[in-house]
Amino acid sequence: MSILGIFLVLPVLNGFSMKEYCHKKDFSCEQPFFNQQEKLEFGRCSSINVLRRISRLGMIDCVRECLVTSQCKGINYRPDWQMCDVVGEIIPEDIGHEDGCMYSNISTWPETLAGECRNNDCADGEKCLFEEYKVRCEQVYCENNPNADNAISDEKFGIHKNLGTGLKFRCKDGYKLQGHPYSFCMHSGRWETQFRCILIGTEISNEFPKDCSDLPMNSKSGVYVVSTNITVFCDMDSDSGGWTVIQHRFNGMQTFEKNWHEYKTGFGDVSGEFWLGNDNLHAILSQRKYKMRVDLEYLDGNTALAVYSGFNVGNESTGYKLSISGYSGTAGDGMTDIYRNSLNGMNFSTADRNQDMSDTQDCAELKRSGWWHRNCATGNVNGLYRPGEKGDDVMHWRTLNGTYSLSMTRMMIKPA
Ligand SMILES: *[C@@H]1O[C@H](CO)[C@@H](O)[C@H](O)[C@H]1NC(C)=O
Ligand SMILES: *[C@@H]1O[C@H](CO)[C@@H](O)[C@H](O)[C@H]1NC(C)=O
Ligand SMILES: *[C@@H]1O[C@H](CO)[C@@H](O)[C@H](O)[C@H]1NC(C)=O
Ligand SMILES: *[C@@H]1O[C@H](CO)[C@@H](O)[C@H](O)[C@H]1NC(C)=O
Ligand SMILES: *[C@@H]1O[C@H](CO)[C@@H](O)[C@H](O)[C@H]1NC(C)=O
Predict the structure, then answer these.
(1) Superfamily name with CATH number, domain 144-207
(2) pLDDT value at position 37?
(3) Mutation to probe ligand 2, out of 178, 225, 229, 281 (largest number of atoms < 8 A from CB)
(4) Cα(318) to centroid of ligand 4, in Å?
């Protein structure tokens, strides 16, 4: 062990020593400059509006994280855990008693600690990074709070909003749980809540909406659980709302070159890019009669839509057989093959399960998409995401603009 090492593990003497709060590698932290107790409120912390929680971080590094994080107004620091909370806007009354924790108002610290990131203009939910001589912003927390009505956080130190985190909840007294008691802050920056707390005594069968059209009036667009246990994104804005989104693409982050099993169970993030899953689709569609709407957009901002007054998908043993009818809209009927025969009655095909009607080609492979291919299909919304390019395998809607790649597609359903 080096002499320096021995020095650093020396026990802390009585009273305040900054070293106690510093990370092993953070030598500057122990300097007299920072040794100002008046910056710190001992035995007090905020359990409200914790934007981020970071473990194994020294206190000065915690101050730095606050200075580079949008909306940060202070830190909670728990030396015993080397745990840093980056805290947003609070009122002084929100700072409660907590042994072994201390709050520090960020306005008591010099902004220069943020280095190149001082005066950054990152958006809410983001932090500033300085890498390779460039300042950039990165999403690190969910801006809003999770939808968790009638639930209490089961987290030891309360809710935080780190991107990618899963928070556990339990229901308040008098309420019972339906679903999995978690809420996830997804990489899209939105929460996905996988449960509801319902009043004990209310009938389960009536409690869950069958689909987004059952949500109370003036519900906001967002993630909800429908049809007992299916997590979906509800579009409550387009065409008087109530739409259950079943497919969405807009940035190419999620690949759609997936196999039978993946199309069966669904993939992606329902508040980002995703395919809801053929089993989920079948489960929702078998509850009522539905219409289906496809929204399309090109890079230059041109938009169009196709609406089908009848839409249904069979179960797996029927090959997820499609029923589709009653086209109207501005995009042209892309639910047809190149001979303009409707895709009605077709099975679903993926690269590993060819069920199309073409004798000469494997449509799912050619079009690089799982779909109800016939002699392939003129709409290829599950194709490759290559906006600006052209080709059989890219995401296109031939009846609208040949095989030019779209930049956005969205499919959604609503009771007919
Ligand atoms: C932090 O300090 C600023 C400036 O002194 C003050 O306006 C604000 O109320 C303080 N915040 C808390 C939570 O005490
Ligand atoms: C969802 O609920 C249905 C009954 O409504 C049940 O058959 C199915 O197994 C459940 N799926 C999961 C993943 O819990
Ligand atoms: C699948 O659907 C068909 C046709 O509706 C039905 O006859 C069959 O029983 C279903 N199979 C399963 C496993 O639910
Ligand atoms: C469609 O699926 C059904 C049920 O699995 C199967 O019997 C039929 O052969 C499939 N059709 C094609 C063209 O693969
Ligand atoms: C078709 O796509 C091309 C290339 O993206 C674009 O320039 C053109 O405006 C599009 N036409 C329509 C009708 O959207």
Answers:
(1) Complement Module, domain 1 (2.10.70.10)
(2) 58
(3) 229
(4) 7
